[in-house]
Amino acid sequence: MSEPNTPRVVPLVDQRRGPLPLPRAALEATGRMLPVGSLRDQLGRGLRDLRISVTDRCNFRCNYCMPKEVFDKDYAYLPHASLLSFEEITRLARLFVAHGVQKIRLTGGEPLLRKNIEQLIGQLAELRTPDGHALDLTLTTNGSLLARKAASLRAAGLQRITVSLDGLDDAVFRRMNDVDFPVSDVLEGIDAARQAGFGPSAGRGTGGLKINMVVKRGTNEHEILPMARHFRGTGIVLRFIEYMDVGATNGWRMDEVMPSAEVVNLIQSHLPLVQLEPSAPGETAERWGYADAQGQHDTNAGEIGVISSVTQAFCGDCNRARLSTEGKLYLCLFASNGYDLRALLRAGASDADLASALGHIWQGRTDRYSELRSALGPDTSDAGRRVEMSYIGG
Ligand code: SAM
Ligand code: SF4
Ligand code: SF4
What we know:
Blueprint: H1 24-29, E1 49-53, H2 86-98, E2 103-107, H3 117-125, E3 136-141, H4 146-156, E4 160-164, H5 170-177, H6 183-195, E5 209-215, H7 224-231, E6 237-242, H8 260-268, E7 273-275, E8 286-290, E9 303-307, E10 320-323, E11 328-330, E12 339-340, H9 341-346, H10 351-363, H11 369-376, H12 389-392
Parallel strand pairs: 1-2, 1-10, 2-3, 3-4, 4-5, 5-6, 6-9
Antiparallel strand pairs: 7-8, 8-9, 10-11, 11-12
Helix pairs in contact: 2-3, 2-10, 3-4, 4-6
The protein binds S-adenosylmethionine and iron/sulfur cluster (SF4) (2 copies).
Protein backbone atom coordinates (compact mmCIF):
# COMPACT_ATOMS: atom_id res chain seq x y z
CA MET A 1 0.00 0.00 0.00
CA SER A 2 1.52 3.34 -0.88
CA GLU A 3 1.07 6.23 1.51
CA PRO A 4 -1.73 8.60 0.51
CA ASN A 5 -0.47 11.66 -1.37
CA THR A 6 3.01 10.25 -1.94
CA PRO A 7 3.14 9.24 -5.58
CA ARG A 8 5.47 6.35 -6.16
CA VAL A 9 7.46 5.83 -9.33
CA VAL A 10 7.21 2.18 -10.28
CA PRO A 11 9.91 1.23 -12.78
CA LEU A 12 8.74 -1.22 -15.41
CA VAL A 13 11.39 -3.76 -16.21
CA ASP A 14 11.40 -6.85 -18.30
CA GLN A 15 13.15 -9.47 -16.24
CA ARG A 16 13.17 -11.88 -19.18
CA ARG A 17 16.17 -10.37 -20.88
CA GLY A 18 18.82 -12.41 -22.67
CA PRO A 19 20.56 -15.02 -20.54
CA LEU A 20 24.11 -14.90 -19.24
CA PRO A 21 26.60 -16.65 -21.49
CA LEU A 22 27.64 -20.06 -20.21
CA PRO A 23 31.19 -20.23 -18.84
CA ARG A 24 33.63 -21.11 -21.62
CA ALA A 25 35.00 -24.03 -19.64
CA ALA A 26 31.51 -25.52 -19.44
CA LEU A 27 31.19 -25.53 -23.19
CA GLU A 28 34.66 -26.90 -23.76
CA ALA A 29 34.09 -29.71 -21.31
CA THR A 30 30.73 -30.56 -22.82
CA GLY A 31 30.21 -34.23 -23.52
CA ARG A 32 33.53 -35.23 -22.05
CA MET A 33 32.74 -35.73 -18.41
CA LEU A 34 29.97 -36.12 -15.90
CA PRO A 35 31.24 -34.26 -12.86
CA VAL A 36 29.47 -35.20 -9.68
CA GLY A 37 30.16 -34.57 -6.05
CA SER A 38 30.34 -31.47 -3.93
CA LEU A 39 31.17 -28.23 -5.67
CA ARG A 40 32.75 -25.09 -4.26
CA ASP A 41 32.24 -21.62 -5.66
CA GLN A 42 34.91 -18.89 -5.83
CA LEU A 43 34.29 -18.06 -2.16
CA GLY A 44 34.46 -21.70 -1.06
CA ARG A 45 30.71 -22.11 -0.65
CA GLY A 46 29.05 -25.46 -1.38
CA LEU A 47 25.78 -26.01 -3.25
CA ARG A 48 23.19 -27.50 -0.88
CA ASP A 49 19.88 -25.77 -1.41
CA LEU A 50 17.89 -25.42 -4.64
CA ARG A 51 14.78 -23.24 -4.86
CA ILE A 52 12.57 -23.95 -7.84
CA SER A 53 9.94 -21.49 -8.98
CA VAL A 54 7.10 -23.44 -10.60
CA THR A 55 4.95 -20.50 -11.70
CA ASP A 56 5.27 -16.72 -12.05
CA ARG A 57 1.56 -16.27 -11.28
CA CYS A 58 -0.05 -15.52 -7.96
CA ASN A 59 -3.56 -14.92 -6.63
CA PHE A 60 -2.23 -12.34 -4.10
CA ARG A 61 -0.77 -8.92 -4.80
CA CYS A 62 1.40 -8.41 -1.69
CA ASN A 63 2.67 -5.00 -2.34
CA TYR A 64 6.25 -5.81 -1.25
CA CYS A 65 6.36 -8.47 -3.97
CA MET A 66 3.79 -8.09 -6.80
CA PRO A 67 2.37 -4.57 -6.52
CA LYS A 68 -0.96 -4.19 -8.28
CA GLU A 69 0.24 -1.19 -10.27
CA VAL A 70 2.70 -3.43 -12.13
CA PHE A 71 1.15 -6.88 -11.94
CA ASP A 72 -2.21 -5.82 -13.35
CA LYS A 73 -4.52 -7.50 -15.85
CA ASP A 74 -2.24 -6.46 -18.72
CA TYR A 75 0.91 -7.95 -17.24
CA ALA A 76 2.39 -10.55 -19.60
CA TYR A 77 2.96 -13.73 -17.62
CA LEU A 78 4.97 -16.53 -19.16
CA PRO A 79 3.09 -18.70 -21.63
CA HIS A 80 2.74 -22.35 -20.60
CA ALA A 81 5.26 -23.55 -23.21
CA SER A 82 7.96 -21.39 -21.61
CA LEU A 83 7.62 -23.09 -18.25
CA LEU A 84 9.88 -26.01 -17.48
CA SER A 85 7.85 -29.21 -17.61
CA PHE A 86 7.82 -31.52 -14.58
CA GLU A 87 10.12 -33.90 -16.48
CA GLU A 88 12.58 -31.08 -17.21
CA ILE A 89 12.52 -29.92 -13.58
CA THR A 90 13.07 -33.44 -12.30
CA ARG A 91 15.91 -34.08 -14.72
CA LEU A 92 17.72 -30.93 -13.64
CA ALA A 93 16.97 -31.58 -9.97
CA ARG A 94 18.57 -35.02 -10.24
CA LEU A 95 21.77 -33.43 -11.58
CA PHE A 96 21.75 -30.76 -8.87
CA VAL A 97 21.40 -33.51 -6.27
CA ALA A 98 24.41 -35.32 -7.78
CA HIS A 99 26.30 -32.03 -7.25
CA GLY A 100 25.50 -31.82 -3.55
CA VAL A 101 21.97 -30.40 -3.27
CA GLN A 102 20.19 -31.88 -0.27
CA LYS A 103 17.23 -29.56 0.05
CA ILE A 104 14.68 -28.49 -2.57
CA ARG A 105 12.10 -25.80 -1.96
CA LEU A 106 9.23 -25.28 -4.42
CA THR A 107 8.13 -21.70 -4.67
CA GLY A 108 6.84 -19.09 -7.09
CA GLY A 109 4.60 -17.01 -7.59
CA GLU A 110 2.14 -19.18 -5.76
CA PRO A 111 3.30 -22.79 -6.24
CA LEU A 112 -0.09 -24.30 -5.42
CA LEU A 113 -1.48 -22.61 -8.55
CA ARG A 114 0.68 -24.87 -10.73
CA LYS A 115 -1.61 -27.61 -12.02
CA ASN A 116 -0.87 -31.12 -10.70
CA ILE A 117 1.95 -29.89 -8.46
CA GLU A 118 1.51 -33.13 -6.50
CA GLN A 119 2.85 -35.02 -9.51
CA LEU A 120 6.09 -33.00 -9.45
CA ILE A 121 6.38 -33.52 -5.70
CA GLY A 122 6.01 -37.27 -6.23
CA GLN A 123 8.81 -37.23 -8.82
CA LEU A 124 11.16 -35.17 -6.61
CA ALA A 125 10.39 -37.31 -3.56
CA GLU A 126 11.91 -40.30 -5.39
CA LEU A 127 15.32 -38.63 -5.79
CA ARG A 128 18.18 -39.74 -3.55
CA THR A 129 21.43 -38.04 -2.58
CA PRO A 130 24.69 -39.82 -3.54
CA ASP A 131 24.74 -41.36 -0.05
CA GLY A 132 21.21 -42.66 -0.44
CA HIS A 133 19.16 -40.14 1.56
CA ALA A 134 15.80 -38.70 0.53
CA LEU A 135 15.78 -34.95 -0.08
CA ASP A 136 14.57 -32.40 2.38
CA LEU A 137 11.59 -31.46 0.22
CA THR A 138 9.62 -28.37 1.13
CA LEU A 139 7.34 -25.69 -0.31
CA THR A 140 6.53 -22.05 0.45
CA THR A 141 2.91 -20.98 -0.03
CA ASN A 142 0.61 -18.10 0.76
CA GLY A 143 -1.73 -20.72 2.26
CA SER A 144 -4.79 -19.70 0.27
CA LEU A 145 -5.25 -23.16 -1.26
CA LEU A 146 -3.80 -25.16 1.59
CA ALA A 147 -7.08 -26.22 3.20
CA ARG A 148 -7.91 -27.98 -0.06
CA LYS A 149 -4.44 -29.30 -0.86
CA ALA A 150 -2.62 -30.15 2.39
CA ALA A 151 -3.57 -33.85 2.44
CA SER A 152 -2.69 -34.48 -1.21
CA LEU A 153 0.65 -32.67 -0.84
CA ARG A 154 1.54 -34.84 2.11
CA ALA A 155 0.43 -38.00 0.32
CA ALA A 156 2.62 -37.03 -2.66
CA GLY A 157 5.71 -37.00 -0.43
CA LEU A 158 6.13 -33.37 0.66
CA GLN A 159 7.94 -33.26 4.01
CA ARG A 160 7.60 -29.69 5.14
CA ILE A 161 5.64 -26.52 4.39
CA THR A 162 6.29 -22.84 5.04
CA VAL A 163 3.20 -20.64 5.07
CA SER A 164 3.57 -16.89 4.59
CA LEU A 165 1.34 -14.96 6.98
CA ASP A 166 1.89 -11.27 7.68
CA GLY A 167 -0.61 -10.76 10.49
CA LEU A 168 -3.64 -12.13 12.30
CA ASP A 169 -5.77 -9.03 12.10
CA ASP A 170 -8.14 -9.53 9.18
CA ALA A 171 -8.06 -5.92 8.02
CA VAL A 172 -4.25 -5.80 8.07
CA PHE A 173 -3.99 -9.12 6.29
CA ARG A 174 -6.48 -8.15 3.57
CA ARG A 175 -4.62 -4.90 3.00
CA MET A 176 -1.25 -6.65 2.73
CA ASN A 177 -2.39 -9.30 0.25
CA ASP A 178 -4.22 -6.50 -1.57
CA VAL A 179 -6.87 -8.84 -3.01
CA ASP A 180 -9.10 -8.75 0.09
CA PHE A 181 -8.31 -12.36 1.00
CA PRO A 182 -9.53 -13.23 4.54
CA VAL A 183 -7.00 -14.38 7.13
CA SER A 184 -9.39 -17.07 8.39
CA ASP A 185 -8.91 -19.09 5.18
CA VAL A 186 -5.13 -19.15 5.65
CA LEU A 187 -5.52 -20.15 9.30
CA GLU A 188 -7.78 -22.98 8.13
CA GLY A 189 -5.06 -23.98 5.69
CA ILE A 190 -2.51 -24.09 8.51
CA ASP A 191 -4.86 -26.31 10.55
CA ALA A 192 -5.36 -28.59 7.56
CA ALA A 193 -1.59 -28.85 7.17
CA ARG A 194 -1.22 -29.90 10.81
CA GLN A 195 -3.94 -32.47 10.42
CA ALA A 196 -2.30 -33.80 7.28
CA GLY A 197 0.87 -34.51 9.28
CA PHE A 198 2.96 -31.39 8.66
CA GLY A 199 3.16 -30.95 12.38
CA PRO A 200 6.06 -30.36 14.72
CA SER A 201 7.31 -33.94 14.45
CA ALA A 202 7.24 -34.18 10.65
CA GLY A 203 10.21 -33.75 8.36
CA ARG A 204 13.79 -32.96 9.28
CA GLY A 205 15.11 -30.06 11.28
CA THR A 206 12.96 -27.99 13.52
CA GLY A 207 9.54 -29.00 12.32
CA GLY A 208 7.29 -29.71 9.42
CA LEU A 209 5.45 -26.42 9.50
CA LYS A 210 6.86 -22.91 9.60
CA ILE A 211 5.28 -19.49 9.28
CA ASN A 212 7.06 -16.58 7.57
CA MET A 213 6.03 -13.04 8.45
CA VAL A 214 7.51 -10.16 6.47
CA VAL A 215 7.66 -7.16 8.79
CA LYS A 216 7.11 -3.81 7.17
CA ARG A 217 7.44 -0.83 9.47
CA GLY A 218 4.33 1.32 9.44
CA THR A 219 2.24 -1.54 8.05
CA ASN A 220 2.25 -4.61 10.30
CA GLU A 221 4.74 -4.27 13.14
CA HIS A 222 1.86 -4.18 15.63
CA GLU A 223 1.09 -7.76 14.55
CA ILE A 224 4.44 -9.09 15.80
CA LEU A 225 3.36 -9.78 19.38
CA PRO A 226 -0.08 -11.22 18.56
CA MET A 227 1.61 -13.53 16.04
CA ALA A 228 4.26 -14.60 18.58
CA ARG A 229 1.59 -15.32 21.21
CA HIS A 230 -0.60 -17.18 18.71
CA PHE A 231 2.11 -19.63 17.62
CA ARG A 232 3.95 -19.97 20.96
CA GLY A 233 3.54 -23.51 22.29
CA THR A 234 2.11 -24.91 19.04
CA GLY A 235 5.34 -26.47 17.76
CA ILE A 236 5.07 -24.23 14.71
CA VAL A 237 8.15 -22.04 14.18
CA LEU A 238 7.33 -18.41 13.40
CA ARG A 239 10.02 -16.53 11.49
CA PHE A 240 10.21 -12.78 11.06
CA ILE A 241 11.73 -11.59 7.80
CA GLU A 242 13.14 -8.14 7.17
CA TYR A 243 11.44 -6.42 4.26
CA MET A 244 13.97 -6.73 1.44
CA ASP A 245 14.89 -4.67 -1.60
CA VAL A 246 14.26 -7.56 -3.98
CA GLY A 247 13.14 -6.85 -7.53
CA ALA A 248 12.58 -3.39 -8.89
CA THR A 249 8.90 -2.78 -8.38
CA ASN A 250 8.12 -2.66 -4.67
CA GLY A 251 9.32 0.91 -4.02
CA TRP A 252 11.54 -0.36 -1.19
CA ARG A 253 12.74 2.17 1.39
CA MET A 254 15.13 1.52 4.24
CA ASP A 255 12.88 3.37 6.69
CA GLU A 256 10.22 0.67 6.15
CA VAL A 257 12.63 -2.06 7.27
CA MET A 258 12.26 -3.09 10.90
CA PRO A 259 15.61 -4.58 11.91
CA SER A 260 15.40 -8.09 13.39
CA ALA A 261 17.19 -6.87 16.52
CA GLU A 262 14.18 -4.63 17.21
CA VAL A 263 11.78 -7.52 16.63
CA VAL A 264 13.70 -9.68 19.11
CA ASN A 265 13.79 -6.85 21.68
CA LEU A 266 10.07 -6.26 21.34
CA ILE A 267 9.19 -9.93 21.88
CA GLN A 268 11.83 -10.30 24.60
CA SER A 269 10.26 -7.51 26.65
CA HIS A 270 7.01 -9.50 26.89
CA LEU A 271 8.08 -13.12 26.36
CA PRO A 272 11.68 -13.82 27.50
CA LEU A 273 13.93 -15.43 24.90
CA VAL A 274 17.28 -17.24 24.81
CA GLN A 275 19.42 -17.49 21.70
CA LEU A 276 19.79 -21.01 20.20
CA GLU A 277 22.46 -22.60 18.02
CA PRO A 278 21.87 -22.61 14.24
CA SER A 279 20.20 -25.83 13.14
CA ALA A 280 22.32 -26.24 10.00
CA PRO A 281 25.25 -24.58 8.24
CA GLY A 282 24.08 -21.84 5.88
CA GLU A 283 20.83 -21.51 7.89
CA THR A 284 19.30 -18.12 7.10
CA ALA A 285 17.39 -17.73 10.35
CA GLU A 286 18.84 -16.82 13.73
CA ARG A 287 16.99 -18.95 16.29
CA TRP A 288 15.57 -17.75 19.60
CA GLY A 289 13.83 -20.06 22.10
CA TYR A 290 11.18 -19.01 24.61
CA ALA A 291 12.75 -19.11 28.06
CA ASP A 292 11.40 -20.77 31.22
CA ALA A 293 11.53 -19.24 34.71
CA GLN A 294 15.18 -20.38 35.06
CA GLY A 295 16.19 -18.66 31.83
CA GLN A 296 16.57 -21.99 30.02
CA HIS A 297 14.95 -22.84 26.69
CA ASP A 298 11.42 -24.09 27.30
CA THR A 299 11.09 -26.59 24.47
CA ASN A 300 7.34 -26.88 24.98
CA ALA A 301 6.95 -23.17 24.31
CA GLY A 302 9.09 -23.55 21.19
CA GLU A 303 11.10 -21.00 19.25
CA ILE A 304 11.05 -18.19 16.76
CA GLY A 305 13.48 -17.25 14.00
CA VAL A 306 14.59 -13.93 12.56
CA ILE A 307 15.94 -13.51 9.06
CA SER A 308 18.03 -10.35 8.83
CA SER A 309 18.70 -10.22 5.14
CA VAL A 310 19.05 -6.43 5.20
CA THR A 311 20.75 -5.58 8.50
CA GLN A 312 23.03 -8.61 8.82
CA ALA A 313 24.51 -9.98 5.65
CA PHE A 314 24.77 -13.75 5.55
CA CYS A 315 26.38 -14.33 2.16
CA GLY A 316 29.46 -15.97 3.71
CA ASP A 317 27.90 -19.42 3.78
CA CYS A 318 25.13 -18.94 1.21
CA ASN A 319 24.65 -22.33 -0.41
CA ARG A 320 21.46 -21.53 -2.37
CA ALA A 321 20.79 -21.64 -6.09
CA ARG A 322 17.51 -20.67 -7.75
CA LEU A 323 15.88 -22.10 -10.83
CA SER A 324 13.37 -19.72 -12.41
CA THR A 325 10.00 -20.71 -13.83
CA GLU A 326 11.44 -20.81 -17.34
CA GLY A 327 14.62 -22.62 -16.40
CA LYS A 328 17.22 -19.94 -15.79
CA LEU A 329 19.72 -20.61 -13.04
CA TYR A 330 20.25 -17.66 -10.68
CA LEU A 331 23.13 -17.65 -8.25
CA CYS A 332 21.74 -14.92 -5.99
CA LEU A 333 18.32 -13.61 -5.00
CA PHE A 334 19.47 -10.18 -6.09
CA ALA A 335 20.98 -11.21 -9.41
CA SER A 336 19.94 -9.38 -12.52
CA ASN A 337 20.23 -12.38 -14.81
CA GLY A 338 20.57 -16.14 -14.95
CA TYR A 339 22.00 -18.97 -17.05
CA ASP A 340 19.58 -20.47 -19.54
CA LEU A 341 19.45 -24.16 -18.68
CA ARG A 342 16.18 -24.60 -20.59
CA ALA A 343 17.96 -23.71 -23.83
CA LEU A 344 20.50 -26.46 -23.14
CA LEU A 345 17.75 -28.96 -22.24
CA ARG A 346 15.71 -28.19 -25.32
CA ALA A 347 18.77 -28.24 -27.61
CA GLY A 348 19.20 -31.90 -26.67
CA ALA A 349 22.03 -31.62 -24.14
CA SER A 350 23.05 -34.90 -22.53
CA ASP A 351 23.13 -35.34 -18.76
CA ALA A 352 26.90 -35.02 -18.97
CA ASP A 353 26.58 -31.68 -20.81
CA LEU A 354 24.13 -30.36 -18.25
CA ALA A 355 26.12 -31.58 -15.26
CA SER A 356 29.24 -30.01 -16.70
CA ALA A 357 27.46 -26.69 -17.22
CA LEU A 358 26.07 -26.70 -13.67
CA GLY A 359 29.45 -27.50 -12.22
CA HIS A 360 31.25 -24.74 -14.06
CA ILE A 361 28.56 -22.17 -13.37
CA TRP A 362 28.69 -22.84 -9.64
CA GLN A 363 32.48 -22.93 -9.58
CA GLY A 364 32.55 -19.43 -11.11
CA ARG A 365 30.11 -17.95 -8.57
CA THR A 366 31.18 -14.81 -6.69
CA ASP A 367 27.76 -13.35 -5.69
CA ARG A 368 27.41 -11.70 -2.28
CA TYR A 369 24.89 -8.94 -2.75
CA SER A 370 23.79 -8.54 0.89
CA GLU A 371 27.37 -8.02 2.01
CA LEU A 372 27.88 -5.41 -0.67
CA ARG A 373 24.55 -3.65 -0.04
CA SER A 374 25.91 -1.71 2.91
CA ALA A 375 28.63 -0.38 0.61
CA LEU A 376 25.96 0.72 -1.86
CA GLY A 377 24.20 2.66 0.88
CA PRO A 378 20.74 4.03 0.25
CA ASP A 379 21.44 4.21 -3.49
CA THR A 380 19.46 1.38 -5.01
CA SER A 381 19.62 2.80 -8.51
CA ASP A 382 20.83 -0.54 -9.83
CA ALA A 383 17.41 -1.94 -8.82
CA GLY A 384 16.11 -1.66 -12.36
CA ARG A 385 18.29 -4.60 -13.27
CA ARG A 386 17.20 -6.95 -10.52
CA VAL A 387 14.90 -9.86 -11.14
CA GLU A 388 11.49 -10.01 -9.43
CA MET A 389 11.01 -12.35 -6.47
CA SER A 390 7.77 -13.73 -7.91
CA TYR A 391 9.81 -14.88 -10.93
CA ILE A 392 12.69 -16.65 -9.19
CA GLY A 393 10.93 -17.43 -5.94
CA GLY A 394 11.90 -16.49 -2.39
N1 SAM B 1 3.62 -17.15 -2.90
C1 SAM B 1 4.36 -17.89 -1.95
C2 SAM B 1 4.37 -17.19 -0.61
O1 SAM B 1 4.05 -16.02 -0.53
O2 SAM B 1 4.72 -17.87 0.35
C3 SAM B 1 5.78 -18.24 -2.37
C4 SAM B 1 6.57 -17.20 -3.10
S1 SAM B 1 6.99 -15.76 -2.16
C5 SAM B 1 7.92 -14.84 -3.34
C6 SAM B 1 8.21 -16.43 -1.06
C7 SAM B 1 8.49 -15.63 0.18
O3 SAM B 1 9.08 -14.41 -0.18
C8 SAM B 1 7.27 -15.29 1.01
O4 SAM B 1 7.45 -15.73 2.34
C9 SAM B 1 7.22 -13.79 0.95
O5 SAM B 1 6.69 -13.24 2.12
C10 SAM B 1 8.66 -13.42 0.74
N2 SAM B 1 8.86 -12.10 0.16
C11 SAM B 1 8.36 -11.62 -1.00
N3 SAM B 1 8.76 -10.34 -1.21
C12 SAM B 1 9.55 -10.01 -0.15
C13 SAM B 1 10.28 -8.84 0.24
N4 SAM B 1 10.28 -7.74 -0.50
N5 SAM B 1 10.97 -8.88 1.38
C14 SAM B 1 10.99 -9.99 2.16
N6 SAM B 1 10.35 -11.12 1.85
C15 SAM B 1 9.62 -11.13 0.73
FE1 SF4 C 1 2.22 -13.86 -4.18
FE2 SF4 C 1 3.89 -14.82 -2.41
FE3 SF4 C 1 4.53 -12.62 -3.77
FE4 SF4 C 1 2.59 -12.49 -1.97
S1 SF4 C 1 4.75 -12.94 -1.57
S2 SF4 C 1 2.49 -11.68 -4.05
S3 SF4 C 1 1.70 -14.49 -2.10
S4 SF4 C 1 4.28 -14.62 -4.61
FE1 SF4 D 1 22.97 -15.54 -0.98
FE2 SF4 D 1 22.78 -13.47 -2.65
FE3 SF4 D 1 21.34 -13.52 -0.39
FE4 SF4 D 1 24.02 -13.17 -0.30
S1 SF4 D 1 22.52 -11.78 -1.19
S2 SF4 D 1 22.81 -14.53 1.02
S3 SF4 D 1 24.67 -14.48 -2.02
S4 SF4 D 1 21.14 -14.96 -2.11
